[in-house]
Write a structure and sequence with these properties.
Blueprint (H helix, E strand, L loop, with lengths): L1 H20 L4 H15 L2 H7 L1 E4 L12 H12 L4 E3 L4 H14 L7 E4 L12 H5 L4 H16 L5 E2 L23 H16 L15 E5 L18 H17 L4 E4 L3 E2 L2 E2 L4 H11 L5 E3 L7 H4 L6 H11 L4 E2 L4 H10 L5 H18 L11 H7 L3 H14 L1 E5 L12 E5 L25 H6 L5 E5 L5 E2 L9 E2 L7 H9 L3 E7 L20 H11 L3 E6 L7 H6 L2 E4 L7 H9 L64 E3 L3 E2 L3 E2 L5 E9 L5 E11 L10 E10 L4 E8 L1 H4 L1 E2 L5 E2 L3 E10 L2 E9 L1
Helix pairs in contact: 1-10, 2-14, 3-13, 7-8, 7-16, 8-9, 12-13, 16-21, 18-19
This protein binds beta-D-glucopyranose.
């Protein structure tokens, strides 16, 4: 009883807050329409809105007569389905929408969801790679491009952005996020939401935008031991300061939906987690869109041991604020009866349906349910030249130059013999990355094809060794080649005769992503062996890495003179890599996640706490370190080189003491001292020296990308306010505490200059 009362109080608060946030007119009009429609709906129809099914048969063909698909079809006709996912293409979407609109009693249109994670058909770099650009305009544009392609295909809702912070490279889904840092992650979240949806709520009505979904709420990136779906246990300090900020940023950018997550958080499954969904999201933050569960996550609460059966799982999920059930078959089968028996309050059902209808109205689906179903637009948009140019631009910006000894890069354009080695160099499938359901296999430009565009050099390609054996798909475990070395000799011969060897090595595109956790962060298969063999013959190697997570490659980091982090860059991979290798594009990316020296260091992240014994002050073993490896990462968060060099001047503050609320101005001069025009991401970190909770040794609180011509100097000024200087305590209160702060400015988290100020 008490619980219901609290829930109702929160609902009222939620909608009062929603009202307060809203300008008049359009939004009020929508509220009225939602109320009017809700008043007409039967309980079954309401529950139907809360039910989402995966695409089920060739909808443009004859409808099925039996089985699961027949059941879904029947439910659709009854109005028991509010949304479908993974139906795509104008013809298909129109067909399902037609059933919902023309055959159901109230004709409520479906909202059509899809995982538009890194592009739709024209694929952009994996999200982790995009985050490495630190270029928010580019990231926003990339989401805009993806949205327009998806929208042209009938889709009006993406299950993105993934805003999970993670410090664990073993977890395969780090490829979907923006890395380890909550500040960068929040900026990226905002850019992606605005890119998908537009900058204002009214932009949602455009047929070129789609609703976004911040996921996975919350804590999913902290799966123990990096094993996907595993237990998450964390204190409030980490939850409030590290995990939640990007979700909050997404909410503030106007994201219309959230997806909860598979994991338990401190014992409570996220799907049945009232603290997350009701108290924080819909309560404190006043979110008035809706929450979708992750795939079958209501049902999985039974497996978690949190509910006896589907009915109990439904009660817990609805009470906790999960508005729409994705593929659990729980709400559609249980909820009507649960309401009739008084086990779920109808007010909670009404609230969920109100939220779902609100978003449907905002998308304009009631004005025209077929507004995303325009064949002409579909033909003109999908795979267009403009979209290919856009993803190429993003791909170049995502590349990170990790090492460039002796200025081996950029490659000379003429008179060179180049050996290109590695199975991934010619692979047209792997570079597409993991989430690419709408794309065709083998449609990426390979690195080989990209390099073939440069005709002034002699290019010889040898694969050396296959990476995988058998099929490589989204669903199946990969099998690696660990035995067939028959291509080694030809590769060695090519290396021997070459001036420069370019080796493309790393992970297959299907080696990261959902269900793809690893305990090794090395080069799979025979690649490390091949690399070392080639090195013996010709050490003049440029290593181009393809991977969806940080790798630990200590031997390569030590020995290979030039290393380019090229991730999985999508459709235009080969062109982007070739343009960077040949210097037609000067790389400016910076790592959004620390690269460990070995897997035993994981989780490793720059914004760690000091510990009581951070350094070896007494010349003995009793300090926080490893006896068999450095404790620093191989490549730090924020690291990334350019073909030019930048010199930082002294960090200046406008004052030495500030009172609370007063802006702190930090400035520094940057000069391009090298031989190329270039871009540098200037990074600002702070440390709150002593606070009521121990604060990290460094926290990113600002960054700016500056373009500098050869010899040019620019001054970059950052402003720190309460928003940057405070933190959340264990009760979730935001505090700005007086005391001494360090400010660091530099080119990466481990290469900065510092100064201090006092906050009174
Ligand atoms: C994933 C989600 C995804 C959903 C729908 C789940 O397995 O965790 O991120 O959006 O499937 O495809």
């Amino acid at each position: 009883m008490k619980q219901t009362f609290l829930l109702l109080a929160m609902l009222t608060l939620g909608s009062a807050q929603a009202q307060k946030n809203k300008p008049m007119n359009k939004e009020q009009e929508i509220e009225q329409k939602v109320d009017a429609l809700l008043a007409k709906m039967t309980l079954e129809e309401k529950v139907g809105q809360m039910n989402q099914y995966n695409g089920f048969w060739d909808v443009t063909g004859p409808s099925p007569k039996e089985g699961n698909a027949a059941l879904k079809y029947e439910h659709l006709r009854k109005g028991w389905v509010g949304s479908m996912l993974t139906v795509r293409g104008v013809k298909e979407v129109r067909a399902v929408q037609k059933i919902a609109v023309e055959e159901t009693r109230l004709g409520i249109p479906l909202i059509i969801g899809f995982d538009v994670i890194h592009g739709y058909k024209t694929l952009s770099p994996i999200p982790l790679a995009e985050a490495a650009s630190w270029d928010m305009e580019a990231i926003q544009q990339s989401a805009t491009t993806a949205a327009s392609e998806a929208a042209a295909s009938g889709i009006n809702w993406t299950f993105g952005p993934n805003v999970d912070i993670s410090r664990d490279a073993r977890w395969g889904r780090v490829m979907e996020g923006a890395g380890e840092d909550p500040f960068l992650g929040s900026k990226v979240a905002e850019a992606r939401v605005k890119g998908f949806q537009g900058s204002n709520r009214s932009d949602l009505a455009s047929p070129l935008t789609i609703a976004a979904c911040a996921k996975h709420f919350a804590g999913y990136g902290f799966a123990e031991a990096g094993r996907d779906y595993n237990t998450v246990d964390m204190g409030n300090a980490t939850l409030y300061n590290t995990v939640l900020p990007p979700f909050k940023a997404a909410k503030e950018a106007g994201v219309r939906t959230f997806m909860n997550s598979f994991n338990i958080l401190n014992g409570v499954p996220a799907t049945g987690n009232s603290f997350l969904q009701r108290d924080i999201l819909k309560g404190k933050w006043g979110f008035d869109g809706f929450v979708i569960t992750d795939w079958a996550s209501v049902r999985e609460m039974i497996t978690h041991g949190f509910a006896e059966d589907r009915a109990e799982a439904t009660v817990k999920a609805v009470n906790a604020g999960a508005d729409m059930d994705m593929e659990s078959y729980a709400y559609v089968n249980e909820l009507v009866q649960l309401v009739n028996e008084g086990k779920v309050d109808i007010a909670l059902v009404d609230d969920a349906v109100r939220r779902i209808l609100r978003v449907k109205y905002e998308l304009g689906l009631f004005d025209d349910p077929y507004k995303y179903c325009d064949e002409k637009r579909e033909k003109a948009t999908i795979g267009s030249k403009a979209n290919n140019e856009a993803v190429l631009d993003m791909a170049k910006k995502s590349i990170v130059l990790l090492k460039n000894d002796n200025q081996l890069l950029p490659l000379k354009k003429k008179g060179q013999k180049i050996a290109l080695i590695g199975a991934l160099a010619a692979n047209k499938n792997s570079p597409l990355g993991s989430w690419r359901i709408a794309s065709d296999d083998n449609t990426a430009i390979s690195v080989l094809e990209g390099m073939q565009q440069y005709k002034g050099n002699e290019l010889v390609y040898e694969k050396g060794a296959d990476l995988t054996i058998g099929k490589t798909t989204f669903l199946d475990e990969l099998v690696f080649n660990t035995a067939d070395r028959s291509g080694f000799e030809a590769a060695k011969k090519a290396a021997k005769e070459a001036d420069v060897v370019v080796m493309v090595l790393g992970e297959h595109g299907f080696q990261s992503g959902e269900g793809r956790s690893r305990t090794h962060l090395d080069l799979p298969g025979l690649q490390q062996e091949l690399l070392e063999e080639i090195y013996k013959i010709n050490p003049n190697i440029v290593l181009v890495l393809n991977n969806g997570r940080p790798l630990a490659l200590p031997w390569a980091a030590e020995n290979i003179p030039a290393i380019v982090e090229a991730w999985h860059l999508g459709t235009q991979t080969g062109n982007a890599v070739a343009q960077v290798l040949y210097g037609d594009y000067n790389p400016s990316g910076k790592l959004p996640m620390s690269f460990p020296r070995n897997v035993g260091q994981v989780p490793i992240y720059y914004n760690q706490h000091s510990t009581g014994r951070p350094i070896d002050s007494d010349n003995n073993v009793f300090w926080s370190h490893y006896s068999d490896a450095e404790k620093t990462p191989q490549f730090a968060f924020g690291h990334g080189l350019s073909y030019t060099t930048f010199k930082y001047g002294t960090v200046q503050l406008n004052k030495k003491e500030y009172s609370k609320g007063e802006p702190v101005k930090v400035s520094v001069d940057i000069t391009n001292t090298g031989n190329y025009d270039g871009k540098e991401v200037v990074q600002l970190y702070i440390r709150d020296i002593a606070a009521s909770l121990s604060r990290p040794v460094k926290e990113l609180k600002g960054f700016e990308m500056v373009s500098l011509k050869k010899g040019e100097t620019k001054t970059v000024t950052f402003t720190l306010t309460d928003k940057e200087l405070g933190f959340y305590n264990n009760e979730g209160e935001y505090l700005v505490e007086p005391g001494t702060f360090k400010v660091f400015v530099g080119t990466s988290s481990d290469n900065v200059q510092e100064t201090t100020f006092k906050l009174r």
